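# step 3/5: fold
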Amino acid sequence: MLIQHDESSRALIFYPFQEHTFSRWRLSYEQYTLTEAFTPFRFRIQYLMLMKYALPSMLLFFLAACQTNINPYQSQAIHTSMMDSDQWSEYWYAGEAEISVYEGDQTRYSERHPGKAVLIFVTEDFLTDEQVKNESGQQENSASVLKTNLALDFTTGIYDYNIMNSVFTPIDQRKHPNTLKITTSVQDWCGQSFVQLNHKGNKYQVQLLSYFEKEGDANYKVENRVTEDELLNRIRLNPNTLPTGKFEIIPGTIFSLLKHVPLEPVTVEATQGKYSGRDMHGANLQQYVLQFDSFDRTLAFIYEAEFPHAIVGWKDAYPSVVSGEKLTTVYRRVSTIKSPYWSKHDLEHMPLRAEIGLD
């Protein structure tokens, strides 16, 4: 909107959008004094249509300027279906899962403990209304999703932690732009906790079941935002669509359960670029880094630039609950295979674990 002062007619001319706009409204004025410091003017409405058209246009202009982009994915070119790519389909629809094994150090109790992670990516049909795997073969309310299964195990002293995280992100972003479901369970010798997020009605419905008094059992809703849990899927789908700059994100469910913090949107600043470190192995490595001011936390995912954008590792640095010292969790890839693992469940298949570094 342009506002110009026309001296010849002693009027203010309001242009709702641009100068070539056909409609315009004129205001005449009479001068009067409000204070000794200022000499504003008393406006007399020359045309009553001003109230009907000009002011609403001004209001819409300022509202648009102040609007917050709550879902950065929607503002980027992600509405191209991955299913349209032959390369993508040949890799992900071959009837196999991609299985990668990682080794590293997990921060817990002011120390870094040896850990091992298995990251599984696989496509499957998913019922969007019930938000469960489509095992009946029905076509209605079914979508192809990329599923992440992350199994994370580490030992603290005498006892173990066993963590499982699953994320279901639709492949056709034109129809389903949001991750539909996230589940995470954390077990240690003290107890266990479980959290599930379901995307419904443009919000996430959260169900929390926890052993710990501070969390307990809870059901609540969270505004629709980018989720930390889905970022690995987003990298595999197309890393060029990752949001950068400042935006709001729902913290990761593993981080939330281990740190006992609520799943509420927080502001992050994300950057993306070449990875220059020498502690990860792969070709043409890139990194996606998120800085969480709320937690003094820095999270980085390192991946290969070329398709299929393999995840070669990640780093997660934040202060210890016990000592306050900032420590970094690091996991590095040691092997990757593609396999229909669900058919390899017999004793004769046990040697495969050693081949990929699990035993």
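# step 4/5: annotate
DSSP finds five helices and 20 strands in the chain.
# step 5/5: archive (pending)
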